[in-house]
Amino acid sequence: DIQMTQSPSSLSASVGDRVTITCRASQGISNSLAWFQQKPGKAPKSLIYAASSLQSGVPSKFSGSGSGTDFTLTISSLQPEDFATYYCQQYNSYPFTFGQGTKLEIK
Amino acid sequence: VQLVESGGGLVQPGGSLRLSCAASGFTFSSYWMSWVRQAPGKGLEWVANIKQDGSEIYYVDSVRGRFTISRDNAKNSLYLQMNSLRAEDTAIYYCARGQALAYWGQGTLVTVSS
Q1: CB distance from A43 to chain B under 8 Å?
Q2: 8 Å CB contact of B44 and A96
Q3: Nearest chain A alpha carbon to B41
Q4: Using one digit for the tens of pLDDT, what is the confidence trace for B24-33?
Q5: Using 50, 70 and 90 to split pLDDT, how confident is the model at B57?
Q6: How far is B59 from chain A, CA to nearest CA, in Å?
Q7: Cβ within 8 Å of B, A 54-93
Q8: End-to-end Cα spacing for chain B
Q9: Hey, is the C-beta of A34 within 8 angstroms of any chain B C-beta?
Q10: pLDDT at A107 over 90
């Protein structure tokens, strides 16, 4: 199975900050990577697919990059509604796998 | 796009449960469909998916042989038959559209406990 490792596991930031979350795959997955945001008690929401394509309706403050084994999610100008847990997921090889999550908290 | 799961509940270890996911707002028969679960306080785990015509099906190892994913394109519905349930299957189960999980339902809680 492909292991997905996110870093950091938690992150404190302030409103207005720009943050970057990293996701590393244990083997190459081309660009078959998605990013999700999850708020407490809610279903995950898709942000990015194909490593860098913005899901419909998602603000451009979210951006993704990378290919192969190393990927990043960048969120610019943090707002209170952005504080949540973020997950990466590879869909290149079965079984599909998620990263362990990155909890973004308000400083 | 709307996905609505149902069928969750409390079941004893070794028991069975069938989850359903009603889809609307898109052409259901044109998309892979997936099940993803989340144990209480834990991260996300992909469970299974099924191709548009049901000709390809994949499972995570921990459920293979116990869970069966299926779909009825005429009814715009996705299913997950869960047998031989274990305590570790306790989770919120989400259905999601596609392999990149572009849209998710609100989830249905499955609790396996005696």
Answers
A1: yes
A2: no
A3: A40
A4: 999 999 999 9
A5: very high
A6: 7
A7: 55, 87, 89, 91
A8: 37
A9: yes
A10: no
Residue A88 banded pLDDT, cuts 50, 70, 90: very high
- CB nearest to B43's CB, from A87, A94, A96: A87
| Cα–Cα distance, B33 to B3 (Å, whole number) | 11
What string of DSSP letters covers chain A? ---EEEE-SEEEE-TT--EEEEEEESS--TT-EEEEEE-TTS--EEEEETTTEEPTT--TTEEEEEETTEEEEEE-S--GGG-SEEEEEE-SSSSPEE---EEEEE-
Q: Rounded to whole angstroms, how far apart are CA atoms B67 and A53?
A: 33
The answer to whether the beta carbons of residues B105 and B26 sit under 8 Å apart is no
Interface test with A, best of B3, B46, B56 (most A CBs within 10 A): B46
- Supply the DSSP symbol for B64: B
Residues of B in contact with A87 (CB under 8 A): 43-44
Condensed to tens digits (0 to 9), the pLDDT of residues A31-79 reads: 999 999 999 999 999 999 999 999 999 999 999 999 999 999 999 999 9
